[in-house]
Design brief:
Layout: H1 2-9, E1 20-25, E2 32-37, E3 42-43, H2 44-50, H3 55-74, E4 77-79, E5 87-89, E6 95-97, E7 102-104
Antiparallel strand pairs: 1-2, 3-5, 4-7, 5-6
């Protein structure tokens, strides 16, 4: 479901999807192995290893990611695995999110962000297990409509 969602979002600015994916049940364990296929893409992590980022690059990174995360939230999801290895740099120096890690906003209505999605890149307020999800960043088409 997440790979299909990423594929739909890749039609919008800020995301890049997979060409194909395959889900295979594990033979010896409960669960599934997920294989994701895409062409080679340069990650932000690799980009940082090649040299320092310019001030303009940092501004563009912030703008591109804020735009993508806003579209994600408007679609009813929170992207919870944002880190340099999941951000891709296009040839035009545009930054795109390109990995699974989506959590439906409805799933966070009565609970906090699961621990497995927390990292050193997670917003500080999401590390508080008693904090509620902040919906103020959502844009809606009418004042009476709430974020989903």
């Amino acid at each position: 479901q997440e790979a299909a969602l990423l594929q739909r979002l890749s039609g919008l600015e800020g995301f890049v999807g997979y060409d194909k994916w395959q889900i295979v049940p594990m033979e010896d364990e409960t669960g599934f192995d997920i294989y994701l296929l895409s062409p080679y893409r340069s990650t932000l992590e690799r980009h940082f290893r090649q040299g320092p980022m310019t001030h303009l690059g940092a501004v563009n990174l912030g703008l591109d990611l804020c735009s993508a995360l806003s579209l994600c939230r408007q679609s009813g999801y929170l992207y919870a695995d944002l880190k340099p290895s999941n951000i891709y740099v296009s040839e035009k120096k545009e930054y795109r999110i390109g990995d699974i890690g989506f959590v439906p906003l409805d799933a966070l209505k009565y609970t906090t962000l699961p621990t497995k999605y927390r990292s050193c890149y997670t917003a500080p307020e999401l590390h508080d297990p008693m904090a509620a999800l902040n919906f103020t960043g959502c844009q809606t088409s009418s004042a009476s409509e709430r974020c989903r």
